[in-house]
Structures are given as C-alpha cells and as structure tokens.
Amino acid sequence: MHRTRLIAIALAAAALAFTPTLAGARSPSRPVAIARTHEASLLAVPKFIFHAGLAFGAFHHFIYVPFKAGKFTSGSIFSKIKNYLEAGAAALFVYHETKLALQDAQQNKVLKLLVSPITSLDALFNTIVSKVKGHSLDAATITSAENDVSSIESQAKSSGSTISEALPTAKQLLAGSA
Asked: Tell me: the pLDDT tens digits for 86-143?
C-alpha cells in the first residue's frame, strides 16, 4: 500500500514537471531582459522620489540652513567643529543619495529630462564634500546648490513626480545610505 502511494506521487510529479502550463501555452512569455527592464522602469519613479527626497532634505537641514544661520563661522570652536562634522556626514550622504537618484532617473522615460540637472547637481555636491573637508564652504556654492535643488524639485513636480524632502535618521546618515 505504501509503495503504491509513492509510485502514484512520483508519477504525478513527473507529469506536472513535463506538462506545459496553461498560461505558458496561451501566450508567449516575455524575454527576461525586457521583463526586468520594464520592472526597473516602473520602480524607478518611487525610488527616485525616495532618494532625492532624502538627499534634498539632508542638504537643507544639515548644510543649507546652518550655513545661512552662520553656524560655520560664528560660535565656539566646539560648535563649529560639531557643525562641520554634521555637514561632512550629510554631504557624503547627499552625494551618495543623489547618485542613486540619478541612476533611477536614467531608467525611466519620464524622468530622463532630469538626468542633466541631477548630473550637474551631483558634481556640485562632490564640490561641497571637498569644501566641507577643507572647512571652506562659500556662499556661492551653497546658493548654487540650493537653486539647482529647487529647479529639480519644480521640474520633477511638473513631470508628475513630487519630491517630498525627508530627514534621514542618524543611522542612515552615519551609514552613508538609506
């Protein structure tokens, strides 16, 4: 009795393994590369909004607002050091998240128009990283970055992808990525 059950199970499994599925018999399946590209394109918009939102939120909170408030030039030496350390960690985080947002923008047809502005903003954030390391932040660089961020936010909104700035957690900031 036990042997007949095993034989029946083995035959059923073999029949299922070699029988084409109904879905596969009705329509040809997509090539794997096309399916992956389509999935990546669909996920690119929310990923772009996520990465750009974190990058822009960190830039505003840890670099732009403290710079405009004069926290890098006034106060005690310890507060300046603290502000530069926060800005340095934030600058690295912003640079990394901007790179990820750029990759996402390159994968979607709607976001392709943002590739050029994000590329220039990415280079500008790389400059900010260098200037934070050298303790030489200047108003022209910070203002230029702020203008570029605002421009990208408005272009994204006009294409239907509203970027909501978000603050990264301390863990994300210290890890350098979300």
From this structure: 998 898 999 999 999 999 989 888 888 899 999 999 999 999 989 888 888 899 999 9
Reduced to 3 states, what is the DSSP secondary structure of residue 95?
helix
Cβ contacts of 93 within 8 Å, gap of 6 or more: 54, 55, 58, 168, 172, 173, 176, 177
Cα separations in angstroms, 122 against 78, 144, 164, 170: 30, 12, 19, 22
The helix or strand, by DSSP H or E, that contains position 1, with its residue range, turns out to be none
pLDDT digits (tens, 9 = 90+) for 127-140: 998 988 888 889 99
Find all residues with CB under 8 Å of 30, minimum gap 6, and list them. 38
Nearest-5° angle of CA 160, CA 164, CA 170? Answer: 150
Whole-model pTM above 0.85?
no
